[in-house]
Amino acid sequence: MSITIYQDMDGCVCDFGLAMVTEIKRLATLSDTEIDALESKSLKKGLRKYIGVFGAEYDLQKAELNHKVVLPLLYKIGCQEGWLYDLPTMEHNGLWDWVKNSGFYYEFLTAPIGMYAEEDKTRYVREVLGSEAVVNVVPRSEKVSFCTPDSVLIDDHHTTIKEWNKAGGHGFLWTGVEGGDLKALKDFIKGLQ
Ligand SMILES: [Mg+2]
């Protein structure tokens, strides 16, 4: 079987969550005057709401990024030009290092946020990761359309993995810094050959 690996980016190879938590916590500690000076009205509004609910010094966690008060901030921040290019690379448990040197054909399969996603993510892959791999930027719900019987999806999103498996592919849930298990991934792929 000639395997193609589809590699998710955010939460697997780049640390969107860490960057977002750090930025929201930084913004929350700005003074009133500094918040007033922010250009985006919706960012100001979202930030004030966040501070009202959580407080300026709240130690926000990645798992709380989908909170309804946090999500509008996340979209506002994440869709800025260059944001997705500036993300830190995750090397947890050596996933990316393994993928790029595994010898398997791989492409990136990643969901967008904002109008700069395709440009910034492609630049990230070329310049930060040093890879010439194809970068497919599609909404999360469309990832499954890339599925073939020989394809492995490595992704941190439960639903996407489920959809991929249901469509006849091989989904491997990569759950991030805490749960990414490279040995389990290698065994999983070995089991397919
Ligand atoms: Mg992801």
Written account of the structure:
The chain has helices spanning 16-28, 32-36, 41-54, 71-78, 95-101, 117-128, 158-166, 182-190, and strands spanning 4-7, 105-110, 135-137, 151-155, 170-173. It has 193 residues and is of the alpha/beta class. The protein has 2 domains: 4-15 and 89-190, Rossmann fold (3-Layer(aba) Sandwich); 17-78, no CATH class. Magnesium ion is lined by residues 8, 10-12, 155-157.
Summarize the structure.
The protein is of the alpha/beta class. The protein contains eight helices and five strands; from the N terminus they run βαααααβαββαβα. Magnesium ion is lined by residues 8, 10-12, 155-157.
Notable traits:
5 strands, 193 residues, alpha/beta
CATH topology of the largest domain: Rossmann fold
The portion of residues assigned to helices is 25-40%
On the 0 to 100 scale, the average pLDDT is: 94
The CATH architecture of the largest domain is 3-Layer(aba) Sandwich
How far is the N terminus from the C terminus? 6 Å
Instruction: Name the overall outline.
Output: elongated
Q: Any idea what the radius of gyration is?
A: 18 Å
Total of domains:
2
Can you identify the CATH class of the largest domain?
A: Alpha Beta
> What name goes with the CATH superfamily of the largest domain?
HAD superfamily/HAD-like
Share of β-strand residues: 5-15%
- The total count of strands amounts to 5
**H/E order of the elements?**
EHHHHHEHEEHEH
Bound small molecules, by name, code or SMILES, are: magnesium ion
The structural class is: alpha/beta
Largest sheet: 5 strands, parallel
What is the multimeric organization of the chains shown? single chain
Question: Any low-confidence stretches, pLDDT <50, length ≥5?
Answer: none
Number of helices: 8
